[in-house]
Amino acid sequence: MSKPKILQENTNYSFRSYFELPNDTDEVLAEFGYVFARTRLQLPKTNRQLERLTELHQQIEETIPYVTLSSEPAKREILIAPSLNL
Is the pTM above the cut of 0.85? Predict the structure, then answer.
């Protein structure tokens, strides 16, 4: 028995519409034949001394597994909130 389709035929979806769907990211991507995978993002590094960076990194690493990333506001909050506490 196959799962019901998330996206309906003959329906127009905007970019924002995908974020308003009640389904998880991996389910929506599966509709298009893609797979969602969490990976660590490697950004450019600086030589500047950044105070409390280790504490910020640890707080984000400890918190992110508990956040539902299907919600765009949740994604923003989890990355911004720890920075505001420094």
Answer: no
